[in-house]
Design a protein that fits this description.
Elements lengths: L2 H6 L2 E5 L5 H9 L5 E5 L4 H7 L3 E4 L18 H7 L3 E5 L1 H9 L3 E17 L14 E14 L5 E6 L4 E6 L4 E4 L11 H12 L8 H15 L6 E5 L3 H14 L3 E7 L7 H12 L4 E5 L1 H8 L5 H27 L5 E3 L4 H6 L30 E3 L7 H10 L4 H4 L22 H18 L8 E15 L2 E14 L7 E2 L4 H14 L3 E6 L13
Protein name: GMP synthase [glutamine-hydrolyzing]
Enzyme class: ligase
Function: Catalyzes the conversion of xanthine monophosphate (XMP) to GMP in the presence of glutamine and ATP through an adenyl-XMP intermediate.
Length: 534
């Protein structure tokens, strides 16, 4: 399927703030259908320019009765009807359809949250593969309910409590589910989504990573002029490496990469990543040792956001110097900057309607290069900005990036600075952390569970604790171990280790890392915590 055919089968998600919105996008892409997500209150032009085949209205934490409740733009109903676009409302999206088309939504007598059973009341349409009276388990999350449907709509499923669970008006191509089909707790949810997309909407599956690669190369080749040069700051992570590899495939030696050793890298990180860049990927990379420069600026700094800002500013300073040196060498300024921005970065930078925010909260400064000096005037190339992390790994595999590298756990841009609360330069804190972290990661690999974990790392605890080692009282530091499972890092749960694994690991760290006499395990999910400690 060519790029135009893929776009003509686009499924567009209008995001009204559900925690599951990104999951809908991922589930649809897993069916080899291109899916994009934009703010639910985006202008009608933003929607029509994308020319979607199907529009899904997401759930959200709002009530349609609330003042300034988010809604799709004026003219939306006329647009989808005149262009024969199929619309599926999920949870809040269903209630929005009902209210905006003349029905009635009220606060439910009994609110429904969590796992619930629903019964099919009319076969055909959304439940063409079911019989009247069939039950299925779904995941509900709503306080309001539809009590009067717009003209032409029918109830096709109800909950055990009698609330409307699914509605449809096939003539107008409007459908609604009061539950979340995208979550795994809705056992037949994916079956319903597949039936809706392929049987009711006539969508054709054809979005493949091979096409993403081909289109990515075409866009880069047509964007970058034949004499233009491009620079890229490599972090040693999967995203920037895959982005650089893609651009290198398109323009060859006109790509100039820089890898900065900021003194905050993991055990032998510099040697390992440079070997991959040079031996396996043949990327043109300049390695800059700036450890002293970074650590001298961080001396005495304890506030997490200030540490991030200092590190970001130093990267920019080094990057600026690299760009100027390159300009002297080439006799012309580089024209473009490559960044490994991913789709979750794009989604998270566009807060949902009704949140009261015009930009994302400062949870932490973004790790991509930002705030570049104005005189650099570099245009951005973000070849991965529509992809999730697992899709980036698939793209990397197509370009023969080594599997061992693609499976590496994410590593933050500020490095170990965010894994040492407080001043990172005191005593030998970084060295203690590096050794403990290496033992932890190698133990996970030896146990064969590395690929089952999204991210694992050690954290240095800047507190002295009392212990007994070699019949002597000690006053040493503690190490916390953090390991989580996740699909894309937007939510995460802690990994359940075998008890013997933890016992052996704790013993090794305390025995092999001087200055440590205690090992802790972080058992917090995201939310409420973030994955990193700072």
């Amino acid at each position: 399927m060519d790029a135009e055919d893929v776009k003509s089968n686009l499924v567009l998600i209008l995001d009204f703030g559900s925690q599951y919105t990104h999951l809908i996008t991922r589930r649809i892409r897993a069916l080899n259908v291109l899916s994009l997500c934009i703010n639910g209150t985006s202008s009608l032009k933003s929607i029509t320019d994308l020319n979607p085949r199907v529009i899904i209205l997401s759930g959200g934490p709002h009530s349609v009765h609330a003042p300034n409740a988010p809604c799709f733009p004026p003219g939306f109903i006329d647009y989808v009807e005149s262009n024969k676009v199929h619309v599926l409302g999920i949870c809040y999206g269903l209630q929005l359809i009902v209210q905006q088309l003349g029905g009635e939504v009220r606060i439910g007598e009994k609110q429904e949250y969590g796992r619930m059973d629903i019964k099919v009341t009319k076969a055909g349409g959304l439940f063409a593969n079911k019989k009247v009276g069939d039950w299925q388990s779904v995941w509900m999350s709503h306080g309001d309910e539809a009590v009067k449907l717009p003209e032409g709509f029918e109830v096709v499923a109800r909950s055990k409590q009698g609330a409307v669970a699914a509605v449809e008006n096939p003539g107008k191509r409007f459908y609604g589910l009061q539950y979340h089909p995208e979550v795994t707790h809705s056992l037949e949810g994916m079956e319903t989504l597949k039936h809706f997309l392929f049987d009711l909407c006539g969508v054709t599956a054809g979005w493949k990573m091979e096409d993403v690669l081909k289109e990515g190369l075409r866009v880069i080749e047509s964007t970058v002029g034949p004499d233009d040069h491009v620079i890229c700051a490599l972090s040693g992570g999967v995203d920037s490496t895959v982005a650089a590899t893609l651009v290198h495939k398109a323009i060859g030696e006109r790509l100039h990469c820089v890898f900065v050793d900021n003194g905050l890298l993991r055990w032998k990180e510099r040697e390992r990543v440079m070997e991959t860049f040079e031996r396996d990927l043949h990327l043109p990379v300049t390695c800059i040792d700036a450890a002293d420069q970074f650590l001298s600026k961080l001396k005495g700094v304890t506030e997490p956001e200030k540490k991030r800002k200092i590190i970001g500013n130093e990267f920019i300073s080094i990057f600026d110097a690299f760009a100027h040196d390159l300009e002297q060498k080439l006799g012309k300024k580089p024209a473009y900057l490559v960044q490994g921005t991913l789709y979750p970065d794009v989604i998270e930078s566009c807060p949902p309607p009704g949140s009261g925010r015009t930009h994302s909260h400062t949870i932490k400064s973004h790790h991509n290069v930002g705030g570049l000096p104005k005189d650099m005037k570099l245009k951005l190339i973000e070849p991965l900005k529509l992809l999730f992390k697992d899709e980036v790994r698939k793209l990397g595999k197509l370009m023969e990036v080594p599997q061992g590298f693609l499976k590496r756990h994410p590593f933050p841009g500020p490095g170990l600075a965010v894994r040492v609360p407080g001043d990172v330069t005191l005593e030998n804190r970084l060295e203690i952390l590096r050794k403990a972290d290496e033992i932890f990661i190698q133990s996970i690999k030896d146990a064969g569970i590395y690929d089952s974990i999204w991210q694992a790392f050690a954290v240095f605890m800047p507190v002295l604790t009392v212990g007994v080692q070699g019949d002597q009282r000690t006053h040493s530091y503690a190490i916390t171990l953090r390991a989580v499972t996740s699909q894309d890092g937007m939510t995460a749960d802690w990994y359940y280790f075998d008890q013997k694994f933890l016992v052996d690991l704790s013993t090794r760290i305390c025995n092999e890392v001087p200055g440590v006499n205690r090992v802790l395990l972080d058992i917090t999910s995201k939310p409420p915590s973030t994955i990193e400690w700072e």
